[in-house]
Design brief:
This protein is of the alpha+beta class. It folds into two domains: about 1-205, no CATH class; about 215-310, no CATH class. Helices cover about 40% and strands about 20% of the residues. The chain has ten helices and ten strands. Strands 1, 2, 3, 4, 5 and 6 form a six-stranded mixed β-sheet that branches. It has a four-stranded mixed β-sheet with strand order 7-8-9-10. Helix 1 (about 45-60) packs antiparallel against helix 5 (about 170-180). It is elongated and about 75 Å long. The relative contact order is 0.15.
């Protein structure tokens, strides 16, 4: 994926002062299920050694990638830590690299490699992986490529069209990541953040979360956009103004919207409705947890009137 610097002007502005674009991606490590988690961070020398191998792999896939500056970190993360509005982890890499010695741009003939590792057990900036998402078997080492605008657009396009299918990491890279992090790596490959989003969409579909994905996709790819989930029997959600608003129905309003059948006259019927209402609330909490994990702000909005539910989320 090529993406403009979020702090810069219009990325389509022509001329020598047009802002840089970036290629955002990750080295994906598929781990053996049930194996030890290993360590999530590497010291500076370990981060540099892995970054050199990553740069070599990317240049093998697209030779002109060697002309770009590679920025990465000696750490691995859960997908939800990368798939967040504004791509904050990649943005942090870019901001730290801009302050690194040697200036912001690579040489024209060959790009620099900048790798951030831990010092005295701490990674710089906001690069520390969250312990809340440390147990998965799919881990990601993010990287960012930057440089000449024309090169970035062309190489980014090549990555988008072929990296997922042909971007297997070199054997040396996989072994280095396995040894350095203390992991059992079954497969190692490269992805763009678009590839990662597509894979996550499929995983969420298998997990029964497909109705939520359009909102999350809007938050990721168009943070200033708007999206609705308004499809019974799912909760009512609206993504707008950078947040997800979830209608919090009172029991009466929920009954009117989701269970408008004849009134219950038996205890068994009332108990069944109560279970359905509790299941609905659990679904709301599930959606809120997924959105929150992806860094999307969630706001529950009281809704006492089923007929005006959409208006409550305005």
């Amino acid at each position: 994926m090529t993406t403009p610097d979020p702090t810069a002007a219009d990325p389509h502005t022509p001329g020598p002062h047009a802002p840089d674009l970036h290629v955002l991606g990750a080295l994906a490590l598929e781990l053996t299920a049930g194996a030890d988690v290993g360590r999530t961070e590497l010291p500076q020398d370990g981060a540099g050694a892995l970054a050199t191998l990553v740069a070599h792999d990317l240049a093998n896939f697209e030779p002109d990638a060697a002309r770009l500056q590679l920025v990465t970190v000696g750490a691995h993360y859960d997908p939800v830590e990368l798939l967040r509005p504004g791509w904050p982890l990649h943005q942090e890499l870019g901001e730290l690299a801009a302050r690194a010695p040697g200036g912001q741009r690579p040489r024209e003939d060959h790009g620099r490699i900048i790798a951030f590792g831990s010092h005295e057990g701490r990674l710089p900036g906001a690069l520390t992986p969250s312990p809340d998402y440390g147990g998965g078997t799919f881990r990601l080492v993010p990287f960012l490529l930057s440089g000449d605008r024309v090169d970035v657009v062309r190489i980014g396009g090549a990555f988008e069209s072929g990296l997922l299918e042909r971007g297997m990491a070199g054997a040396g890279t996989a072994l280095q990541a396995q040894a350095a992090f203390g992991l059992q790596v079954e497969h190692a490959r490269y992805l763009t953040v678009h590839d990662l989003a597509a894979m996550t969409a499929m995983q969420y579909e298998h997990a029964g979360l497909a109705p939520l994905w359009p909102l999350l996709e809007t938050a990721l790819l168009e943070p200033g956009g708007e999206a609705w989930l308004d499809a019974l029997p799912e909760p009512l959600l609206r993504y707008v103004d950078g947040e997800a608003r979830i209608a919090l129905f009172s029991p009466r309003a929920w009954h009117a919207r989701y269970a408008p059948e004849a009134p219950c006259d038996s205890d068994a019927c009332r108990e069944q409705l109560e279970r359905r209402y509790q299941q609905f609330q659990a679904r709301q909490r599930q959606f809120a947890a997924v959105l929150g994990a992806h860094g999307v702000a969630v706001n529950f909005v009281d809704c006492q009137d089923a007929e005006n539910a959409r208006g409550a989320l305005a």
